[in-house]
Prior knowledge:
Blueprint: E1 10-15, E2 29-41, E3 47-52, E4 60-61, H1 64-68, H2 75-84, E5 95-98, H3 99-109, E6 121-128, E7 131-137, E8 142-143, H4 154-161, E9 169-180, E10 183-190, E11 193-194, H5 200-208, H6 212-215, E12 227-230, E13 238-243, E14 250-257, H7 264-274, E15 278-285, E16 288-289, E17 294-296, H8 298-307, H9 309-329, E18 332-338, E19 343-348, H10 357-360
Parallel strand pairs: 3-13, 5-7, 5-10, 14-15
Antiparallel strand pairs: 1-19, 2-3, 2-9, 4-8, 6-7, 6-18, 9-10, 11-14, 12-13, 15-16, 15-17, 18-19
Helix pairs in contact: 3-7, 7-8
Amino acid sequence: MPDLKASPSELGEISRHSLDSSDPAEAIIADVKHLASYNWIEAPEPTIVVPGSPALCGFVYITQNAVRHPNSPLEPLFRALYIEQPSFDIDSIDVVTDRNNVRQLLSFVNPTQRKNGLDSFTIQVDMTAQTAIFCRAETATYEIIGPSEFRGFGSEFEKSYTINQVMNSTGHYRIISYRLGGLCFLVGHETDGYISDPKPSVKDDLSTGDNLTEILHPLSLTLETTSTVQASVESELTIKREGQAVSRESLEIKTRVFHKPLELSEVTPQLWISQTLQLVRAYHQRGVFSRPEVENVTTAMKDWEKGNQDDIKKLIALVNSILRVTRNWGGSSIIRYDPREDKLVIKQVERKKMLPDDLYSRWNKTVRVNVE
């Protein structure tokens, strides 16, 4: 069991060396389900469309939910979820989070999982019934690239090789659930596109490296008539019904200069957390791209999962430790990592609620046994 030391202002401290990797016997992601999706769109008020479809933009967001809806960055996730899954049992979920929070915790377990090491990070936590809601906390929520600055060709490549289906869209987000080590996760993440029901002929095209524009053509979805949904009287969020639900064949696009190839091991942890099954590694010379290919990375993800059981089991132990502390506290807290001290510190905090009250009413308030 991890060491949990606490001062009067702290709920607990967790050190890396104290994490136990002996349980469970096998730590694999199972029972993956696509639940919902949404797009942020450019509008005077915070506006999402559900279920939406892939869209891209040139403005570089670090965490778009926090930029467009700072009072409740996680509200869009829950609104989209309950529109597409009205009877979803939120009490069955142990952790609600975005992909980045899990990446940070996995990197704490093993800093070599990140090419450039582990920086400081903070995760906000709210306990509702027995569910921990993790909210990404960033000092900077967006970045503006000046005319004399360069951040690579990734955004322009995505705009050229994918099809924008929602007018004024600035980002597409998906919500999935899965089980890992006895815990149930609800995970939100941004995605770059879809591969919808690939046919054998398309697979043949992939092997010959045909143009990605042709491969992604199935993304041209038939959009439903737009209608507006009232979120709640307490919400500042506007919700529109638009788009069409598709399978969970998410696509991640990565671009690199040709003489610095992207190793699959660099991105596999990220793909594994969101169960993203398709990857594009696009290479360029001075901005001119060679013909990219779509790779199915299912086998690579499973191989990574088998080869990193020690880290994954420690990740499960870490999340269980966080749950134990935050459930016992029952209120709002933060998880903070400082590289100088090289440990996680959990502190209680006073802040406004993460979600509008009507969303909290979805929990049945039934008490489950705390993690021991």
